[in-house]
Amino acid sequence: MAKKIDTTLKLNLPAGAATPAPPVGPILGQAGINMMDFIKQYNDATADKRGQVIPALITVYKDKSFTFELKLPPVTDLLKRAVKLKSGSQKPGRESAGTVTMDQIKAIAEEKLPDLNTTSVESAMKIVMGSARSMGLTVK
Predict the structure, then answer these.
(1) Where are the beta strands (DSSP E) in 27-133?
(2) Which pLDDT value is given to residue 104?
(3) Does the global pTM surpass 0.85?
(4) How many Å apart are CA 87 and CA 56, to the nearest integer?
(5) Do residues 66 and 99 both lie within one domain?
(6) Where is the domain boundary, 18, 37, 70?
């Protein structure tokens, strides 16, 4: 018989460097799961991806056990890494933070395709271009 699901949580955490400091500790504490157990498992699973932000989808069961699934980094993180930025523009649309090429857009779209709500690379590219524009990046 399958376990009954109590709740699901989604956290964006630094790979290999998650700590029980807020906001992670309070969120996991409210869900009633052992935060140190989760943090140890997460850090072990993401140790090879240090420097990235890796989302974790945590499923908490009624007996307070849990499982988690790792997702791909957010599109904005992939764009910042491709263009070598620390952050996007403070005034998107008025100030440009940098330029991203269509080849970079396509590479990011193909990498992120399993996590997006589309199966078409062209649609995924449009999603990535929208994120780039909202970060203040110029698409060429």
Answers:
(1) 53-61, 66-70, 98-100
(2) 87
(3) no
(4) 22
(5) no
(6) 70
